[in-house]
Amino acid sequence: MGKPFLLPFIALIISALCAFVQSGDPYLFFTWNVNYATLSPFGVPQTGHHHQRPVPRLAPNYTYQFQVKDQIGSYYYYPHTALHRAAGGYYGPINVHSRNLIPIPFDKPEAEFNVLVGDWYTKGHVTLKKFLDSGRSLGRPDGVIINGKSGNEAPTWNLIPGKVYRYRICNVGMKNSVNVRIQGHTMKLVEIEGSHTVQNVYDSLDIHLGQCYSVLVTADQTPKDYVCRLDRFTKTVLTTTGTIHYEGSNIPASTELPAAPGNAPEGIAWSINQFRSLRWNLTASAARPNPQGSYHYGKINITRTIKIVNSASRGEDKLRFADEPPADAEDHITTAPNVVNGTFRNFIEIIFENHEKSIQAWHLTGYSFFAVAIEPGRWTPAKRANYNLIDAISRHTIQVYPNSWAAIMTTLDNCGMWNLRSVSLERNYLGQQLYISVLSPERSLRDEYLLPVGQLLCGIVKDLPVPAPPPPPPADA
């Protein structure tokens, strides 16, 4: 391979690729053209290379095929290997729109903007990986970025006075939650992670790791510039701003930035109350003509409860997460394999308890779940009386506040091996994750597809034979 070509300017290669797709479209094909780049959102150059993207090395080619079928909403992609997520530039949004015949619960906006926000480290992903391998924490991030930029290079969104705009905001960071607010404007929440919401209006929104919120903003203020500010939940406040510019105006934004709702402990209580205000729009159509509320999850009996208590520990003087129960844990807590066997089509409840001082966030692949409760303290079965069993948001990521618990419910109706993991980069890398194995007793293509042709294999399964396909169904008599 030839000498790497370094772009002389800040480049975010993959994040510039935004996929706008229509629900029900046939298979879509995307080609990632990978170049070398120098990334320096805080003035510290960081060189990218071909290991830092969500596609294989340059030797083989690999095509991702998926059908946008039954899940509208705002999403993003990023690399899952090592600490490549910290390399920057290799994530981007995927927006799935409803089919034309499916009504959405608001008028079509003038335009849509993708806003990828998150914390950032000026040290490269190789250095950060060495920190974790040596037993250190990643420490405090160096700043916050919007669409890969900060400071004087922060993005500007141009608005036409009187028009309504949709902002799809995702927290693609590595460690911290953020609070989003816009000077002089309110935000009408319309969607969270694929679910239309009750359209409450907010002055600011807490968006935690891995979460995507969709809001409508009306350009109904005096034509001038306004600041969009991000920060939250850190002892040392990390802030960055973007600019909303009204067309035809040359008046700069006020230097008085919108204040955050507050930090711990009052900020945590405020954030929990905001979570409780987030509700599913039961009358809006989903990706199909039936309304979102046609699935009555609150009337289904729970067949299994899984309780997860995360903790930090040190083994051989190295920081690790979830290796074993803490010394002061209850006697009945035991260690278990990192693969949990689930029963196909069982309705389960998962409880997350956070005994630490920082906010946690968890993501379950392959599923959406109902986020039915978040409360301070410890969970007990009696807490089920406080669950939202009517209009909890169906989503795939849940936050857990310090010294608090969160409860989710889902049906194990998707066969496969699914990762339940911390969205925090260092926690995920150091072991705060497990897998849920869901097998179909019928071993049918109706329940689980075959391994894709050409699937790249690695690790201990690299040289193993591909599993045989299931037998064909019996011929009709």
From TrEMBL:
Residues 1-23 form the signal peptide. InterPro entries: Cu-oxidase-like_N, Cu-oxidase_2nd, Cu-oxidase_C, Cu-oxidase_fam, Cupredoxin. Keywords: Glycoprotein, Signal. Residues 59-100, 113-249, 332-441 form the Plastocyanin-like domain. One of its GO terms (molecular function) is oxidoreductase activity. Pfam families: Cu-oxidase, Cu-oxidase_2, Cu-oxidase_3. Belongs to the multicopper oxidase family. This is L-ascorbate oxidase. It comes from Sesamum radiatum. The lineage of its organism: Eukaryota, Viridiplantae, Streptophyta, Embryophyta, Tracheophyta.
